[in-house]
Amino acid sequence: MVRRQSVIPRTLSAAPLSAQDALALLGSTLGEDDRAGMEATLTAAERTFGLAGVKVDEASGVGAFLLLTDGMHVPAKHPLAHSGLDPDVAGLLKVEMVSHHHDVVVGKAMMVRLAEALRERCRAVEAQAAPTAKLATASSPSPLWLSKIGFRPTVFPQRRFRYDLSSTVPWTKRGVEWIAGPLIRLRAVTAARVAKDETISVGPTVRVTGPAAEGRRGLAARLRRLLPLVGDKVVR
Fold this sequence. Notes:
2 domains; 3-stranded mixed β-sheet
């Protein structure tokens, strides 16, 4: 992993990279033959995932970037090529960081942006870690760094790390549905109870009162299941 000394802010956001933008960032580090192969890999990634990678900008330009590959276009000499990738998994092709002191912050920012972009297109991002931090490269990041930005080691292959996209629930459509669902069901239950002259008060405590409230243990149990976010205490 190449590190250049720079100063970057602690609050970061990452932006998507196209295949051509990614090639421009790699610049003269690629030979003519390597450039052709890298262009094919990045173009395939953009076609499959909608982007070839992500970048984080700083005052002087691009401060960090992370590139992707799909399972069908992993370069033959890349560490991921040994065991391959599943069709519904993206691979970490290359990551270039700015500074040793901020690479975890930058890495988290890039993975948050990737999770937003990839969640509907694949189920995980996988990376092949280096044996130790001292042996880390752009293609094989440090296992400690991967762990700190959200990757988890897999049982097989050896030193393979995975960032599970299904476990990252954003505050968007899926998150709102997860929160709103129990409240919508509570509304239906409330309407039915009101029809029977009962009242349900919702707050830190869920309280059921009214002529028919006596012995409503089953309703209380259902409310506990329906309202995991409101409170854990139901007064009967």
